[in-house]
Automatic annotation (TrEMBL):
<dbReference type="Pfam" id="PF04616">
    <property type="entry name" value="Glyco_hydro_43"/>
</dbReference>
<dbReference type="Pfam" id="PF20620">
    <property type="entry name" value="DUF6805"/>
</dbReference>
<dbReference type="InterPro" id="IPR049046">
    <property type="entry name" value="Beta-AFase-like_GH127_middle"/>
</dbReference>
<dbReference type="InterPro" id="IPR008928">
    <property type="entry name" value="6-hairpin_glycosidase_sf"/>
</dbReference>
<feature type="domain" description="Non-reducing end beta-L-arabinofuranosidase-like GH127 middle">
    <location>
        <begin position="407"/>
        <end position="502"/>
    </location>
</feature>
<dbReference type="GO" id="GO:0046556">
    <property type="term" value="F:alpha-L-arabinofuranosidase activity"/>
</dbReference>
<dbReference type="InterPro" id="IPR046544">
    <property type="entry name" value="GH146_SB_dom"/>
</dbReference>
<protein>
    <submittedName>
        <fullName>Arabinoxylan arabinofuranohydrolase</fullName>
        <ecNumber>3.2.1.55</ecNumber>
    </submittedName>
</protein>
<dbReference type="Pfam" id="PF07944">
    <property type="entry name" value="Beta-AFase-like_GH127_cat"/>
</dbReference>
<comment type="similarity">
    <text>Belongs to the glycosyl hydrolase 43 family.</text>
</comment>
<dbReference type="InterPro" id="IPR023296">
    <property type="entry name" value="Glyco_hydro_beta-prop_sf"/>
</dbReference>
<feature type="site" description="Important for catalytic activity, responsible for pKa modulation of the active site Glu and correct orientation of both the proton donor and substrate">
    <location>
        <position position="894"/>
    </location>
</feature>
<feature type="domain" description="Glycoside hydrolase GH146 substrate-binding">
    <location>
        <begin position="635"/>
        <end position="764"/>
    </location>
</feature>
<dbReference type="GO" id="GO:0005975">
    <property type="term" value="P:carbohydrate metabolic process"/>
</dbReference>
<dbReference type="Pfam" id="PF16375">
    <property type="entry name" value="DUF4986"/>
</dbReference>
<dbReference type="Pfam" id="PF20736">
    <property type="entry name" value="Glyco_hydro127M"/>
</dbReference>
<feature type="domain" description="Non-reducing end beta-L-arabinofuranosidase-like GH127 catalytic">
    <location>
        <begin position="16"/>
        <end position="396"/>
    </location>
</feature>
Length: 1064
């Protein structure tokens, strides 16, 4: 006896399915505790704000405050409803009732049935009612996917009623649907289809559900009109045009196609849904049941991206695929749907919940040796947080189903189903997947003939599958649907035992056969490779912190299985009889990975892992080629500071996409954006000071374009271009204020045409080689000055142990790049009577038509005078200007003289302490009584003063020249004698990479311009040290507030024709 196969199959309500023990039960209970950590009033805040009511608590951060306010609350309602039903949980039920009541209050305040958290929602809906339809893939009327957002409210209210029995939720839901009908029914089909170009969730499904609940046909008519024909028509024609599409935008639409087709008895819609499922579940999904790379369906020739990309399958997709699978199973009753369901549930869904704190996962990378990140309550509010809340509250949804007198046992979990309609209960006892068997114990009110259909999984198609009833073998042949039908009269205590032989097997990645996943039965096995560099493992509230942004590990260094795919399964050895643990030591390479242990993916957390293994490595030559290409990709990833993928929702939303007359597209799995008008992104240098802007577009597209950076053109003369396959890469070196703060990059076409199709935009950290020193040989402590139409450098002659130099030279340049040696300008043994060694750290100033040269000699400070900056210089005093014994606790070295706008000169000097004093008008004397100590915190040596916009800047070197902490810091004052307040953003110059010992500087202003340079020394490259240093010259930049920006030691000055500046 069996029911009519034409009858629909129904799943049991969650309140009739009890999860007792095992991974599904553990997940449900953990999720319940996790849900209760959220504050309902904070989730409700966007709704109250939009209703003009006072919120009881501030809204949550992250996506809830970034344009998607309210989306989480809808998911939360669904999750509370499911948890309340599944666990008969009064706290969840009470919380659900409170939230529904608050939403009803918001709806009542509006007066027209609307309730939602969409920012400035009523303004948007009024514009749509007026025919203002500004729609793109992820924006409608400048709002981030508002119908997608609102769909969550519809669905949450529906579930609160259908799943948890909340009658008030029904009233609010039907009222909201009525508002929706009033808004959208007057639109023409063409207008409504234009609206549907923006991601809108499953609006067709919830409207169809409203028709079923209320009996109002208008909702079903609107649901039909909400079916997006751009997706529906190709699917109904059996055409897969999914490549390049945003994956999770499509799945909810298809669920709605099926629901509308069910209620209207329209086979075309139902068949379109089935075709979609077959293409995605059977052709486009990876071993653990997920699909998409970076949220998009790749084309057949782009499946390598699964292995290369850090953004693997998205959890939301699988959530929706399971819901679609439930619908198709209910219609068709075939075991293949539950085969997929089991795979996706036990491998993907279970793996996206942290087993301790309950956080949810957005992307599950397939890339070997990458990792996943987890949400935390109150902080992260991604879409996959919302679906995550639901995923782990509805594990009992598809375990069992019924049709008339037939029971379907679909999945294997320790659980009990209350088949109240038949006066029966079935207790299933199993430790699946750790043991390959399950048992069913039947309890009936009275003996009754029923059919219990036990699914025979595809993975148990071989020998060993067996069914016993009360210990006696039962015919294990399956029916056409893939189930073993046990048709008999049942008595309480009757017992069914099922052996489920699980064996190791492999599954290659679709369209990329060299990568293989190892499975045991339906369970995907993974191996932990390390626990290092798990950046952002528990995500903060940043817009894109759902991405595991830590460093990628080279694919060439990943463990491989040195065997053909058909040889791997026999090498899989189980090493634990209690839990699933395996080894494949004999074929794992390299040897450092021989001891890797394979466990179920859903049990692997907080680690880098391998789920797809490369097998049968390529020939040596191919390996070398691949290694070089892989290293280039890793270097690009390491250098990337910020990135936008044009045409993709999350990256564009994160970067504040704006535009007019702009289009997106995608083929071959690669998205793009172009514009006949314009579009822009906001990019963030993230504190980096040395960056390159890189934009990439299709090489076949020769249309011109223009770029502006914060409104300033980036001329093509600054661009460096190259071709990479079918792409063209253009790079602009950004300098100065261009990288001082976040900036807007704007794309426009050239001369009215459309722009090319842009596929990638990046800010790259420049890892430049150190520039060449500006002077030949070894020279330290350089002082830079501009006189006339030339730039001068006055350094210490370096290269002697103990800094035993005895003379000074000068250098000059007409462009700051090509330098002329002006020869020795002061020779201590020849020109002085009081010192003959330790010629250090000179400085120069001009006044009264003369040039005054200050220097250290034998740890005293002297002064020399000349008529020209090239000398010759003479000693006017015949003695030190400052003697080594004049001031205790410091060395009398490192002089510097600053001449203010009023022609008053000031002398600064000292190592250990910093002294300052006004000089007499003769520039060679001062009043000792006026000497001040102006030592700032951290000061060691090399003071320098410059003035800009009325502010005085004292800069100095900290630590010793041989100390790795040697650096330049600065402070600011309103007087040349201080008090100088040390700036917060210090140091401004320090060693980096191969540039070591950078410091002891001077600063010069290019005549006629607000353009500054800094001269400093570094250890000679290669082989330098504290006695062998060389002179460098780099740009020095001030921020808008006057702060000195950090100096890029890998940047050298660009040539300037100084003679051309006389007129500036």
């Amino acid at each position: 006896m069996a029911a009519n196969a034409e009858q629909p199959i129904e799943f049991f309500p969650l309140k009739q399915v009890e999860l007792i023990d095992g991974p599904l039960a553990d997940s449900l209970r953990l999720n319940r505790d996790h849900l209760l950590q959220y504050e309902p009033d904070r989730l409700l805040a966007p709704f109250l704000e939009e209703a003009g009511l006072e919120p009881k608590a501030p809204r949550y951060p992250n996506w809830e405050s970034m344009g998607l306010g309210g989306h989480t609350a809808g998911h939360y309602l669904s999750a509370l409803a499911a948890t309340a039903a599944a666990l008969d949980d009064p706290q969840c039920r009470e919380r659900l009732g409170y939230m529904v009541g608050e939403l009803a209050r918001c709806q009542q305040a509006g007066g027209d049935g609307y309730v939602g958290g969409v920012p400035r929602g009523r303004e948007l809906w009024e514009a749509i009612a007026g025919g203002q339809l500004q729609a793109s893939s992820f924006s409608l009327g400048d709002r981030w996917v508002p119908l997608y957002n609102l769909h969550k409210t519809f669905a949450g209210l529906r579930d609160a009623y259908l799943v948890a029995g909340n009658e008030q939720a029904r009233e609010v839901f039907i009222g909201l649907c009525g508002w929706c009908d009033d808004l959208f029914s007057p639109l023409s089909d063409e207008q409504l289809q234009a609206v549907l170009a923006t991601e809108h969730g499953g609006m067709n499904e919830v409207l169809a559900d409203a028709a079923a609940i209320s009996g109002e046909d208008r909702f079903l008519k609107l649901a039909r009109r909400f079916c997006h024909r751009a997706l529906l028509d190709p699917l109904a024609a059996g055409q897969d045009r999914l490549s390049g599409m945003h994956a999770n935008t499509q799945v909810p639409k298809v669920i709605g196609f099926h629901r509308v087709g069910e209620l209207q008895d329209d086979a075309r819609l139902r068949d379109a849904a089935l075709f979609f499922w077959r293409r995605v579940a059977e052709q486009r999904s990876v071993a653990f049941g997920g699909n998409s790379v970076s949220e998009h369906f790749p084309s057949d020739d782009q499946y390598q991206r699964f292995i290369e990309h850090r953004e693997g399958p998205e959890t939301c997709n699988t959530y929706n695929m399971l819901r679609l699978t439930e619908r198709l199973f209910a219609e068709r009753g075939e075991s293949r749907f539950m085969d997929f369901y089991e795979r996706a549930l036990f491998n993907h869904i279970l793996s996206t919940q942290h087993p301790e704190h309950g956080g949810y996962v957005y992307f599950t990378p397939c890339r070997p040796r990458h990792y996943r990140v987890y949400s935390q309550p109150g902080v992260a509010f991604w879409c996959c947080v919302g679906t995550g809340m639901e995923n782990h509250s509805r594990h009992g949804s598809a375990l069992y189903a019924h049709r008339g007198d037939e029971l379907f046992v679909n999945l294997f979990a320790h659980s009990r189903v209350d088949w109240a309609d038949q006066g029966a209960q079935v207790l299933q006892t199993t430790r699946f997947p750790d043991e390959p068997r399950t048992s069913l114990e039947v309890t009936v009110d009275e003996p009754k003939r029923l059919v219990i259909n036990v699914r025979r999984p595809a993975w148990a198609a071989g020998e060993g599958f067996a069914v016993r009833v009360n210990g006696e073998p039962w015919n294990a042949d399956t029916n056409a649907a893939g189930y073993v039908a046990i048709d008999r009269t049942w008595h309480s205590g009757d017992r069914v035992e099922v052996d489920l032989p699980m064996q190791a097997s492999v599954e290659t990645l679709p369209n990329l056969s060299e990568y293989t996943a190892v499975m045991y039965g339906p369970i995907v096995l993974a191996a932990k490779t390390s626990e290092d560099d798990l950046d952002g493992l528990v995500a903060g509230d940043g817009r894109m912190e759902h991405v595991a942004a830590g460093p990628l590990r080279s694919l060439n260094g990943a463990p491989v299985l040195a065997a053909r795919p058909d040889q791997i399964a026999e090498k899989v050895e189980r090493v634990d009889t209690d839990r699933l643990r395996f080894r494949v030591a004999d074929i794992v390479r390299p040897d450092e990975y021989r001891d890797l242990e394979l466990i179920p993916l859903f049990r692997l957390h907080d680690a880098r892992y391998v789920v797809y293994w490369k097998s049968a490595p390529a020939e040596d030559g191919a390996d070398e080629q691949m290694a070089a290409a892989e290293e280039a990709k890793l270097a690009l990833d390491r250098a990337t500071v910020d990135r936008v993928t044009p045409g993709q929702q999350q990256p564009e939303a994160e970067h504040n996409f704006r535009g007019e007359d702009t289009q997106i597209g995608g083929d071959g799995g690669q998205s793009f954006r172009n514009a006949s008008g314009w579009f822009s992104y906001d990019l963030n240098p993230r504190g980096e000071k040395s960056l390159t802007l890189q934009v990439t577009y299709r090489a076949s597209d020769d249309r011109g374009f223009r770029l502006t950076w914060n409104g300033q053109p980036l001329p093509s003369s600054r661009a460096r271009q190259r071709r990479e396959g079918d792409l063209r890469v253009v790079e602009y070196r950004l300098t100065g204020d261009e990288v001082a703060k976040p900036a807007t990059l704007r794309f426009t076409p050239d001369q009215g045409a459309a722009t090319p199709d842009f596929v990638d935009v990046r800010l790259l950290r420049r890892e430049d080689r150190p520039p060449a020193a500006v002077l030949p040989g070894v020279n330290a402590d350089p002082h830079v000055a501009f006189f006339g139409d030339r730039c001068y450098l006055y350094p210490t002659t370096d290269g002697t142990e103990g800094w035993r130099s005895t003379s000074f030279q000068a250098w000059s340049s007409a462009d700051m790049v090509n330098w002329r040696n002006e020869g020795v300008i002061l020779d201590l043994p020849r020109d002085l009577k009081w010192a003959d060694i330790h010629a250090w750290a000179p400085a120069i100033a001009t006044k009264n038509g003369k040039y005054y040269y200050y220097y250290s000699a034998n740890k005293n400070i002297g002064v020399a005078v000349a008529d020209r900056p090239e000398g010759p210089f003479r000693d006017p005093l015949g003695k030190p200007l400052v003697s080594a014994r004049d001031y205790r606790g410091m060395q009398a070295i490192d002089p510097m003289v600053f001449v203010d706008d009023d022609n008053q000169a000031y002398l600064y000097w000292g190592q250990g302490r910093c002294k300052a004093v006004p000089l007499a008008d003769d520039m060679i004397s001062f009043d000792p009584a006026q000497v001040r100590d102006i030592t700032p915190p951290g000061y060691n040596e090399g003071p320098f003063v410059h003035k800009r916009d009325g502010r005085y800047y004292l800069s100095w070197s900290e630590y010793d020249t041989r100390d790795p902490r040697y650096s330049v810091a600065y402070g600011v004052a309103d007087s040349p004698l201080g008090k100088f307040k040390k700036a917060a953003d210090n140091p401004i110059l320090k060693q980096s990479g191969k540039v070591r010992g950078a410091g002891h500087h001077s600063i010069g202003k290019v005549p006629g311009r607000d353009q500054w340079v800094i001269a400093y020394h570094r250890f000679r490259i290669p082989g330098g040290d504290g006695y062998n240093r060389e002179t460098c010259l780099s740009p020095l930049r001030h921020a808008e507030d006057g702060a000195i920006q950090r100096v890029d030691v890998f940047e050298t000055v660009e040539p300037i024709d100084l003679s051309s500046l006389n007129g500036e």
